[in-house]
């Protein structure tokens, strides 16, 4: 069976080298799609691209594309948060619902088995559980610093980027800078 390597914006499909059921060896030739459909009766993978100009959304299934079009192109309207004093506005209902659940309610359905601490989101529970196990799955490629959260690693990396990129004015590379007399 042939594998779809990519699909160009013009509707052409580019195939990896492969052997069709009939024995034909294929090498990204223009007539490959027609050959596959007519001779081998193989179903080609279908990729659904959003028809709206400027939109780059792509889906494997028609249902996903329909949902995308409905949410992003047809039923576009502002959905303000109903809580007094909250000025957040959302364009998609499920984003508003998630916001209300996480910000405006105290529901904490995720409970740590070891200490009983509760969390609003599963991902927060998983990071917390790493404290009990001692796991630190993230590591700095520069110095080997280890941590549990991407935000911690990102903050840590700013320390490496704080090194001067250019020598101070009036010096050459490798030259020490004399302190100003006080």
Automatic annotation (TrEMBL):
Gene3D superfamilies: Classic Zinc Finger. It holds the Pfam family zf-C2H2. One of its GO terms (cellular component) is nucleus. Signal peptide: none annotated. GO terms for molecular function: transcription coregulator activity; zinc ion binding. Residues 79-109, 110-137 form the C2H2-type domain. Transmembrane segments: none annotated. The keyword Zinc-finger applies. This is Zinc finger protein 276. It comes from Molossus molossus (Pallas' mastiff bat).
